[in-house]
Amino acid sequence: MATLSNAKEIEEHNNLMDHGGGHLMDMGGGMVMGQNTETLPGGCDKIAATKEITVHAGHKYAEKFPGRMFAFDTQEYQFEPCTKLTVHFINEDSIRHQWMMHGLPKYLYPKGMFHLEVTGPGKISGTLILPPGDKTYLVHCDIAQHMEKGMKGQLKVGKGSGDLPSIPGVTAYVIPDDYGLAKVDIPVSQQPNINPNAAIESKPSTTAPAQDQNDSLISGVLVIGLAAGLLIAPFMARKFKGMSVSEVVSYLFELIGQGIGFITKLMTKLLNVISSSKNKSLPEK
User: Fold this and answer.
1) Whole-structure pTM over 0.90, yes or no?
2) Selection from 84, 74, 33, 76 nearest residue 54 by Cα
């Protein structure tokens, strides 16, 4: 057992059962996936270098990143292509954390992944051989929301292929945090200059747009129609009782015809009255 300065005991997971295919695990919550200590990736003629790193994971490493909850102690790594790399992963929290690397060649690493995992305070180690070429690989904890809360980094092989987004302390967040800060009063001395006549110059028109008037008219007609429908519904129900469908349709057409005739007569009388009024108002020559 190793001990940290905060008196947490770190369990060393060094008695793992080999399940084949680079998958090792024990009953204490330790797991390695994608272990590869010998097979060279295509394009690697030999092991270019042998390296070891120790990665610490925990809540305390996020303190330097405002708004983050978890983090690794290091957010960026860089190695030569074809390096044989052993990673010692130390979880300092009393929950499960991972150090997972994505994008590796799938013919050699199942699902293109190298994965270290520890439940609770513990240490576990695994080895892989990095591919050739210049590429930037994502490393993160895949436990729900741990990456989003800060447990994310990047590993560059060779020159890398650029930087990944949202790496704490390295690159800007794709979606900046928004804590919904309340509006505060701005002192007059800090307020922008505003033209006092702007309100007068930009006074809105008091005349409602034609579209709004039309919408109001349609809404009023709709309400009147619905009210009339509710009033005559009982009468119509009694009227149609015992009728066949064809009789109902015939009766409705008859009503519509009578309604159109009544409206036509009414409009004719109204136009005659208006015409007569205009003629009376014209001066005699």
Assistant:
1) no
2) 74
E strand residue ranges, 19-172 = 24-25, 30-33, 49-58, 71-72, 76-79, 83-91, 96-102, 113-119, 122-129, 135-140, 152-157
Percentage of the chain modeled with pLDDT above 90 = 49
What are the tens digits of pLDDT across the range 223-275?
666 666 666 666 666 666 666 666 666 667 677 777 787 888 888 888 888 77
HSE-CB of 213 using CA atoms within 13 angstroms: 5
3-class SS at 228?
helix
What architecture is domain 2-157? Answer: Sandwich (2.60)
Tell me how far apart the alpha carbons of residues 276 and 280 are, in angstroms, rounded to a whole number.
6
Residue-range domain boundaries for the chain = 2-157, 210-279
146's CB contacts (< 8 A; 6+ apart) are 69, 70, 97, 98, 140
CA 139 to CA 151: how far, in whole Å? 9
SS3 assignment, position 140: strand
Secondary structure in 3-state letters for 153-181: EEEEECCCCCCCCCCCCCCCCCCCCCCCC
The C-alpha atoms of residue 67 and residue 148 are separated, in whole angstroms, by: 10
CA dihedral 38, 141, 136, 46 (to 10 degrees): -10
Between β-strands 122-129 and 83-91, what pairing exists: parallel, antiparallel or unpaired? antiparallel
